[in-house]
Every structure is written in structure tokens, then in C-alpha cells.
Design goal:
It is built from 13 helices and 15 strands. The strands form four sheets. It has a five-stranded mixed β-sheet, with helices on both faces. The longest helix has 21 residues. With about 400 residues, it is an alpha/beta fold. It is extended. Helix content is about 45%, strand content about 15%.
């Protein structure tokens, strides 16, 4: 309806009206920080950097810790906004720093909890962590990241610095996670080098560290169900079937889940990320599944019973033959794999690659041959004679060498 010139005139007059007679705009107040008084932390996603480990995408986050006065910063690689990640990252930062600030500021963990009970538990554990280190905690208001401005701004600059360093490196691929973490550590050391003067001021004001670090593991009592599984943090894990009906202690840290019974470690598993996921180890249930092969077809976690792609392909080939016996035959193969999975996988790959029929008896015989070939040979080490060494000490060898040289 309006010409470009008319629209521009309207926009200019509205802009002038807002400045002269419009409502007040939000004011941001520059803060003057004191040495050793405040630290801030936050979680930041690192996926946009495109980091890979052994050519595989490495989806991860970083727990980012910053001192408000000096700008000294630290980060810990993590995978979720859990309390275990926060505890590990916070304690790593303090022990690397060598002291404790007066106050710690962070957000309200809206991404870490999804219910009132979880929030209550998270808050209690968080306050216990702060009490252990003798520092007070402060939360920012909801949807007000500017109140945690030091770390929010450093999140952006830190990721930009990592991006620049990766470009200079010439590759975003790392051989291992340890190599990537070393890369981040060296980068942070370089970034913190220019803050040494103000950091020295802060170090004089920091409180001393406690004698020991706080255990970051979460411990819960869980009863093992009839399916030989436990439910932890809305995810399902399998445990040995002999524990069915028993109560086990589950210890969770940032990356692992441990099942303990009678003060003995029974199983250690990778901690699942997210909710409603499952981790089933076929070795825990294969003994009874072989006795009940009819349960395999509709088993809820059947996809977890194919350790490698060769097992999946072998099962599909078995189904092309006698479909009624395919489940039973495959479960026998899986039972065999529970003792030597790599050998069974190698045999299956050999048979599939040459379009040979899959049969339990054939696989069992080939696995037996592979195991026999792989067993270490008996070595006979002859007793060591010290006569030559005695001759050297007596001087006979030395005198003979001088005579030959002359």
C-alpha cells in the first residue's frame, strides 16, 4: 500500500517517537566484580563444531566454569545436564584452580530436571556440593541469561576459539576422546595465560580446598525385575539373571552405571543418554532364552540381541530356510557367542561372504578350530649361562680384545 520512501519515513518517525516519548527500555547494569568473590558456570552444546572421533560424529557438551574477576576458565566434556556432570565439572575446575570462590552462580537446571521430585533431589544434592566446598549458591531468574553474563559471553568466545583452533589444526577428527580433551586443555591453558596477573590477585582471596573431593556418584536401591532388568533414571539396563528378585545398589556417575550386590561390583555399563532407552546384554539372559526360544520373536528388546551386523544377517538367512527353526538355531549361535563373540562373528562373516549355509554345527566346529589356532604355543626358554659374563668380569675377554686390536 505504501511506496518505499513513505515506509522509510514512517519507520524513521516511529523510531524518533520511541526515543522521545516511548516506553522505557530495559537497562543492563555493568557489574564491578571483586577478586575471589564470584564464579559462574553453565552447560553449552558443542555439536556445531563438527568434532569427530575416529571419523564418527562426537555429540557432546561442555561444562564451562569461569571466574568473574579474572576470566579464568575451565571446561569438562560431558553428555547431559545431569548433577553428576555438574559435580564432576565443578570439582575439576576447583582442583585445577587450587581454591574456592565465595559464591557460585548458575541457572535453574531447567534442562536437567523434568518433575518436582527430580528438582527437589537435584537441589538437595547441589546444596550439599556447595556446602562441602564452603561456597554459597545463587540462581539466576528464569529466561534471564544476562544475569549469568560472564559465562554466557565466554561460552560464545570459547566455542569460537575452539573453532579457530580446529581450523588451524587442519582437521576436526581425533583418534580418541583423550586426544580431543588434551586439545581442549592445551587451548584453555593458552587462553588463561593472558589472565595470570588478575588470577594472581584472585588466588590470594580464594578459600582453601577441602581435604577430599566429594563423591559425585548417585546411589539408589533398585529391585531386579523378572525380566532380569532394572529401571534407573527412566532407562532400562540388564543384569545377570541370578539377581532376579534381589535389591541391588546402583551407582551412577557421569558416564557409567554400576550394579553392586553385597558390596561387590556385579556389572558396569555405559550410562544411557536421554529417557526411555535400554541397554540389554544378551549374556545375561541367553541361558534362559535358549530354553524358551518361542519368546524371541516378540521379545521387547530383541534388537539388542544382534551383537554385530553379521549376526543380524545370519538370522535373516536362517529365516529364509526353515523359519520355524530359525529362532532356535540363532539362539544356539548366540549362546556360543557368549563365550567367544569375536570368533563366532569371524566365522559368520566368512560363511556369509562365500554364500555358504549357516548351521550351528558348522559354526561350532570352525570356532573350535579358530580357538585352537589362537591358543598360545608352549615356549621353552633355555637356562641362561653366565660364563660369558664371568669371563668379562675376570678380564679374559678384555685382554683378548686388546691383543686383537694391537
Amino acid at each position: 500500500r505504501f511506496q518505499d520512501g513513505q515506509l522509510r519515513t514512517l519507520q524513521r518517525r516511529l523510531k524518533r517517537w520511541r526515543a522521545l516519548d516511548g516506553p522505557d527500555r530495559e537497562v543492563y547494569f555493568t557489574q564491578q566484580h571483586k577478586a575471589g568473590a564470584l564464579c559462574q558456570s553453565d552447560f553449552t552444546h558443542m555439536d556445531s563444531l563438527g568434532v569427530t572421533i575416529a571419523r564418527a560424529p562426537f555429540s557432546h557438551m561442555a561444562y564451562h566454569f569461569v571466574l568473574a574477576y579474572s576470566g579464568w576458565e575451565s571446561c569438562t566434556v560431558c553428555f547431559s545436564e545431569s548433577f553428576e556432570s555438574l559435580s564432576l565439572g565443578f570439582q575439576n575446575a576447583l582442583w585445577d584452580l587450587g581454591g574456592v570462590p565465595v559464591q557460585h552462580c548458575t541457572d535453574r537446571f531447567s534442562a536437567a530436571v523434568s518433575s518436582l521430585s527430580e528438582r527437589t533431589e537435584f537441589t538437595e544434592r547441589y546444596r550439599g556440593l556447595m556446602k562441602h566446598y564452603g561456597t554459597s549458591c545463587r540462581y539466576i531468574n528464569t529466561a534471564k541469561p544476562n544475569e549469568n553474563g560472564c559465562v554466557e559471553q565466554r561460552n560464545h568466545r570459547f566455542k569460537r576459539a575452539v573453532d579457530q583452533a580446529l581450523m588451524l589444526r587442519g582437521s576436526r577428527d581425533f583418534s580418541s576422546r583423550a586426544e580431543y580433551e588434551l586439545f581442549l586443555s592445551q587451548l584453555l591453558k593458552q587462553m588463561n595465560a593472558g589472565r595470570s596477573a588478575r588470577l594472581a590477585e584472585e588466588m590470594r582471596c580464594l578459600r582453601t580446598l577441602p581435604t577430599l573431593r566429594l563423591d559425585a556418584q548417585k546411589r539408589v536401591q533398585v529391585r531386579v525385575g523378572v525380566g532380569s532388568t532394572i529401571s534407573v533414571d527412566r532407562n532400562v539396563y540388564s543384569v545377570p539373571s541370578r539377581l532376579i528378585g534381589e535389591t541391588v545398589e546402583v551407582r551412577m556417575d557421569m558416564e557409567t552405571v554400576e550394579a553392586w550386590y553385597a558390596q561387590k561390583l556385579i556389572e558396569r555399563m555405559p550410562r544411557l543418554r536421554g529417557r526411555n532407552r535400554h541397554h540389554i546384554n544378551y549374556r545375561h539372559i541367553i541361558g534362559w532364552l535358549v530354553r524358551k526360544p518361542g519368546a524371541f520373536a516378540q521379545y521387547r528388546y530383541r534388537s539388542e540381541l544382534f551383537p554385530t551386523s553379521h549376526f543380524r544377517m545370519a538370522y535373516d538367512l536362517l529365516c529364509q530356510g526353515d523359519n520355524a527353526r530359525a529362532d532356535k538355531e540363532y539362539l544356539r549361535l548366540l549362546k556360543l557367542a557368549s563365550d567367544n563373540e569375536s570368533a563366532v562373528d569371524h566365522v559368520l562373516a566368512h560363511l556369509i561372504g562365500r554364500s555358504l549355509p549357516i548351521a550351528f554345527e558348522t559354526v561350532e566346529a570352525m570356532v573350535r578350530d579358530i580357538t585352537a589356532l589362537a591358543s598360545p604355543a608352549a615356549l621353552v626358554v633355555a637356562p641362561v649361562s653366565l660364563a660369558a659374563y664371568d669371563a668379562l668380569l675376570s678380564g679374559d675377554v678384555l685382554s683378548q680384545a686388546k691383543e686383537s686390536a694391537s
